[in-house]
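Notes for week 9. Today we move from apo structures to complexes. The key idea is that a small molecule is not decoration. When we ask for a structure prediction with L6N33NVT present, the ligand SMILES becomes part of the input, just like the chain. The input block below holds both the sequence and the ligand string. Read it once before you look at the output, and try to guess where the molecule might sit.
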Amino acid sequence: MDALSCKVYNTNLSDLCHRRTFSPPALVCNRKYVFSFNGSHGQFSLHLNASTDKFKMNGKPNFQLPVQERRLLGKTFSFMGDCALEENFPGVRMNTSQEKIGVLLLNLGGPEKLHDVQPFLFNLFSDPDIIRLPRLFQFLQRPLAQLVSVLRAPKSKEGYVAIGGGSPLRRITDEQACTLKEALKEKKVNANVYVAMRYWHPFTEEAIHQIKTDNVTKLVVLPLYPQFSISTSGSSIKLLMRIFREDAHFAQLPISIIESWYQREGYIKSMADLIENELSNFANPQEVMIFFSAHGVPVSYVEDAGDPYRDQMEDCINVIMDELKSRGIGNPHTLAYQSRVGPVQWLKPYTDEVLVELGQQGVKSLLAVPISFVSEHIETLEEIDMEYKHLALESGIENWGRVPALGCTSSFISDLADAVIEALPTASLVSSSAKDTSSETDTDPLRYVINLFFGSILAFVLLLTPKFISTFRNFLVYLM
Ligand SMILES: C=CC1=C(C)c2cc3[nH]c(cc4nc(cc5[nH]c(cc1n2)c(C)c5CCC(=O)O)C(CCC(=O)O)=C4C)c(C)c3C=C
Ligand SMILES: [Fe+2]
């Protein structure tokens, strides 16, 4: 490891503008080298694939170091010109016996029995990242969650009854955790893999407790959502950061958080494999419309709160379609958003409306591709397989297919293992000084009383306005 010397010269990037020495590569796997250094904008990791000569910066494949001349000389890599990098190949490294690596998988969680549905919905709607109330009204979050969960529960239960009486999410996530542990082991990394659900068992707090008990010395946090949204990975990461800041144990633990990974080659190729495979089941594969259906979020998340979800989703689909094109598959495709809840505007176009339009336009064969989630769940098994299939057939579409969720597909899990390995060198201490403004209201009693006082007055005034009354009525009608 010490034999490494790795320097970058004269690049025009602000963070690489000085001569820098990188860390030794923390792990080498299939000739992939990962170096890290602290730049003025935070910690960076540089990924070098010695087989393909390609660089990745902080997991982004499009990042190109301005390299003018490259030479591979025996055991020395030399990059000259704008950037130079030299290293002696250090050989394969296993994590040491003192090092205990933990991988924390983040997921949503789902009710296992019908009896769990209402409390699960209460947990979901209590999350300020799911129902985003203006600051002054945040004290209404829990009463509103109680009301909405009770009203929504009967409709939700119907869905869970249709898929066998409960969510398969816990079982599938546990299987993914086991398979990931095995994949890491094959790549010479011994790690424990933990599951943290946001709204049902095993809750995030349970996983955190286990990580402490096991004396994990380095942690990689991996959300099981390919694309980032405030409402999914964002909410789970926010909760984790709060726990980490409040627990002295985690102040000493190097942690690396992978926020999104939809652009990873292994994921893209695995999705393309599934699509290619399902297309081959149609009588005329080249005529099939590839219909990506993503879970929606309210438009305000993207347009007001800066959620990158829509951009990442569109980018993800473009990359998958490029991969398919490179395999000679040039089918038409479209993207729509499903599963909206409540009276606000959600990302458009809506899946149900597009299906009807496609039927009217004469599309006869359609392959539905669930794209925002990597395991089967109520919205694939009930909403897509039952409701949307029925709607599509009614609208004139004759041949229907659906791509399965990735689940434990080996190429996909192997890629997740690579993502974990690549994230290890960037693990660093979570700053205790970073301020979490979302919890301020809960912890500052004066602010809470002021909010309660003015919020109650505002709520009272609003309650009397006709617009509010009709919005609220729509809201309830929509939920039931
Ligand atoms: C990327 C995936 C998801 C996003 C984005 C998302 C946002 C989001 N969801 C709701 C409301 C509900 N979601 C529900 C279930 C549910 N949601 C996701 C994924 C995303 N949600 C999954 C995987 C599941 C299913 C879990 C399971 O049991 O299998 C539900 C409960 C089911 C129902 O009643 O329809 C609700 C409600 C909102 C409001 C939101 C964004 C703000
Ligand atoms: Fe959802």
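The chain has a mean pLDDT of 81.
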